[in-house]
Write a structure and sequence with these properties.
The chain is 44% helix and 20% strand. By secondary structure, it is α/β, with parallel strands linked by helices. The protein has a five-stranded parallel β-sheet, sandwiched between helices.
């Protein structure tokens, strides 16, 4: 199961279209708090997480998900592509980091 977390519905749809043939079940969420709730209910294999969301941002959600569900793999998918953000994502528990301008690489990660 794969969880796509982004506050932009169009971005979620674009990511879904890129990976839907690789994942049996896909759930979409609009923010980090919805993502954590979905993890409690569904325990996904993968979470594709944006960073800039409200009320709970993606880094906070990543830390929380990894604390309660350490086996869940999280990849950050964001427009923020600087060294500080990459380091913060890794520290939060993300195992991969992608700019939204490079979404095709998600297929390689998930497959």
């Amino acid at each position: 199961m794969l969880l796509i977390v982004d506050d932009n519905k169009n971005v979620r749809g674009m990511i879904r279209s890129l990976v839907e043939d690789l994942a049996g079940d896909i759930v979409e969420c609009e923010d980090g708090s919805e993502a954590f709730s979905a993890c409690e209910k569904r325990q996904p294999d993968w979470v594709l997480m944006d960073i800039q969301m409200k009320p709970m941002d993606g880094l906070t959600a990543t830390r929380k998900i990894k604390r309660f569900f350490p086996e869940t793999k999280i990849a950050i998918v964001t427009n923020l592509n600087d060294a500080k953000t990459r380091a913060a994502a890794k520290e939060a528990g993300a195992i991969a980091f992608f700019g939204k301008d490079n979404l095709m690489s998600l297929r390689d990660l998930i497959s």
